Amino acid sequence: MPAYWVARSRITDPVEYKKYTDLVPGIIAKYGGQVLARGGRYRIMEGPEHFHRFVVIEFPTFEQATACFTSPEYQRAAAFRRNGAGEVENVIVEGGEFTT
Length: 100
Description:
Elements: E1 3-11, H1 14-30, E2 34-38, E3 53-59, H2 62-70, H3 72-85, E4 86-94
Antiparallel strand pairs: 1-3, 1-4, 2-3
Helix pairs in contact: 1-3
């Protein structure tokens, strides 16, 4: 069953943030991830307008999505944005059938 990274971010230092974004595509691919949406047009329908960049990445499984996020190589890359280049919220959600 697929799982999705759903992230929203606010970039405060584009030069430093780019050091992060330059590394991430290869890391995501290593864990079977595929970017579905990144930084495109958006409209906030409800909630705070604090973030201005949105990302959705699909992974084959929840375990692969989690392994990617917790991997040493991703954590090294994320250090660039965590050191003041931006603010990110990231959630991993498993896809599947909806139940009521």
